[in-house]
Amino acid sequence: MEVTATTKFVRISPRKARDLARAISGKPVSEALMLVASSRRKAAVEIGKTLKSAVANAENNSGLAVEKLVVREAVVEDGPRLKRWRPRARGMASVILKRMSHIRITLTDGAE
Fold first, then answer.
1. What DSSP string runs through the chain?
2. Cα(45)–Cα(41) distance, rounded to whole angstroms?
3. Dihedral sign, CA of 56, 61, 66, 69?
4. pTM of the complete model
5. Which domains does the chain have, with CATH numbers?
6. What is the pLDDT of residues 52-92, one digit of tens each?
């Protein structure tokens, strides 16, 4: 059985969060939680919250055993972008994109 958790509109660039998401994919939940806890990246906080939410969903809503859970996929998708303007030479302006992410984590217990 698969269980998902999603966190939307996280104020971090998807590019900076994807490497940690790739690192926890395919790992058991206990190992993934240790990886996230030991990481010093800003994305580790948000990915950790989403992972803990997915574990709570599996435990409370689906009645699955936490020890058997495996991270099937951890995906960081592009969210909307805030557009801000910066003054430049000769009266021009250039855009600065403040990027957001949507984090989705899917857990499975291996049984179909």
1. -EEEEEEEEESS-HHHHHHHHHHHTTSBHHHHHHHHHH--SHHHHHHHHHHHHHHHIIIIIS---GGG-EEEEEEEEEEEEEEEEEE-GGG-EEEEEEEEEEEEEEEE-S--
2. 8
3. negative
4. 0.91
5. 2-108 (3.90.470.10)
6. 999 999 999 999 999 999 999 999 999 999 999 999 999 99
